[in-house]
Each structure stands twice: as structure tokens, then as C-alpha cells.
Amino acid sequence: MVQLSVLDQSTVARGHGHDEAIRETLRMAAHCERLGYRRFWMSEHHNIASIAGSAPEVLAAAVAAGTRHIRVGTAGVLLPNYSPFKVAEQFRVLEAIAPGRIDMGLGRAPGGDRRTASALNPDVGVAAQHFPEHVRDLLAWVTGTPLPEGHPLADIRVMPETPSAPQPWMLGSSTGGARIAAQLGLPYCFAHFITDGRGADEALDLYRHFYRPSERFPEPHAAVCVWALTAEDEDRAWELYKTRERAWLNRYQGIFHPLLPPEAVDPERYSAQERHAAEALRGEVYVGTPRRLGGRLRALADELAVDELVILTWTYDFESRCRSYELLAHEFGLEPRS
Known about the structure:
9 strands; 8-stranded parallel β-barrel; alpha/beta
């Protein structure tokens, strides 16, 4: 049976504040917990006007404190932007807040343009080159296991000390993250929503083929994060989708405006190039009634041989997004929590 989880990006709608988007993330986490979703992850983006979620580790603390059952995590902390030691401290704190419910999702991408990445860490280029070693150090610190003999920081301890440790995940949209996850024996999630599915087969096959069992994860565990949207009827689903379609077209032009309401999107005014791209995407995107969407998502899980799908949904209004997750939960028979 396919497990369902959620990725939330604190998307910003035109006419609404970034602070409102952050508060909606907290409300969405509580909503998805009640619906029975397995995990609630938050992403990291910087200097992008359509996404307010810049600090998932901070949001994770608020979500963990406001929930009781759902796993809470990051998708992900973009490690080249930060010191591995500081990230270890943050996740030890999160584990103390919600023992046994924290997921530490890690990524290598900068989460924004190069100048912004440089503002986060002037040595981000060097840090990216040492990403595998930094992941190893972080895993040792966050789990309380010794660093390699001769490591210059081997005697440093991470506080707070906790009896349990977060569950690490490697995230990626190419074979790079899959290879590192395989080498280190970590769960892996492919960002289908970034590539529109391109490269998923290759990355997941590589991950499973080269997987080295670890003590905590003797078998590979793979998930896929996919953008999906549903509504009570087909017409309503495709009307809501217009918001994401316009944002998707803008992204490829380097434009990241706040999300437009569907009624403000007129496909008749698309350029010829935009029309061609939009038509191609409509043939691939996961949109439709709960029954139709559920069938396509199950087929995707079967095709990629994954047991877990992480669902990302964008709509202009918060209520439609909540309803989409609710309809999908019912379609997959998730057990509601009180």
C-alpha cells in the first residue's frame, strides 16, 4: 500500500503577505496530521518572492510543537549553505522537541541564485565540493557516533544529547544525490516535481543498485515527491491548476512573482512558446478528480517501485489546497487522527 506524505513550500499568493504564508504552513501541518498523512516536510528557498519558506528547521520546530503524531522534517536543509555542526545542533533540538518524529532531509542545491547563495555562505562553492564529507560529519554528530580517527573535530560534542536521533534523508533531482544516499546507506527521495519526472528511473535504479546497507537502514528506502492537485470535478481541478501553470511558465523565464488567482490567468494570452510548453506539461501533470489522480499516482508508485509518495500542491487559496489534500487522503484510505 502506498504511503502518502506532504511537502509544503509556504507559497505566497498575490495580495497576501509572506507572514500569512508561514502561518498557513502551520495550519496545513495540523490539517494533514488530522487527515492521516505520514510526514510533513518543509522546503528551503531563498530570494524567491513566490515562496516564503526560507528556514525549514525553524518551521519544523513550530510544526513539531503543534502536532503529536505526524513526522516532521525538512526537504530539505541545503547543507552547503551552513556549518554541518550547527545543523546537527538544530536537529538535536528538534529531536528533543518531538522524539522519534523528526526527519532530517538534506540537499546540495543552493535554493536560489548564486549571489544569494554567496550571501548565505561566501564559501558555498567550496562547501558544495565537500558535500559528501560534510554529510558524513553531520550524520556522526547528529547520531552521537564517533568521527573518523584523526578528524580535527573528533572531540567536539553536540548538545543537546538525546536518546534518539532524527531520521536522515538524502534529497535530489539527479543521480548525484542518489549516489551519495546509496554510498551512505540513507533513505532517498527524488524530486519529481522539479524535473517533471525526467531522470527519476535512472536515479532510483542507481540508488538501489549501489546501495550499501547501513546499521540503521539495512535496506534501501526510496520515495518520490510529486506535484499533484485534485478537486471534486475535473473542470474545477483544471481551473485551480491554472495558478501553477502560470507559475511554472514564469519559472523558466526567471520570474518568481507571487501566485496569481486562476481567473487572472488567461491561456489565450500566452506566447506561442508558452502555449507549446503549457500543452506539453498538461499531458504529464498530475491533475484531476480524486479517482483519476489516485489511479495515476498509484501507477507512478508502481512504475518507480516506491512505497511512499510525497505530495506537493499549489493553489492560490489556502482552502482549495486543504481540500485537495483531504480528497486525496480519502481516495487513498488514510486513517484520520483525532
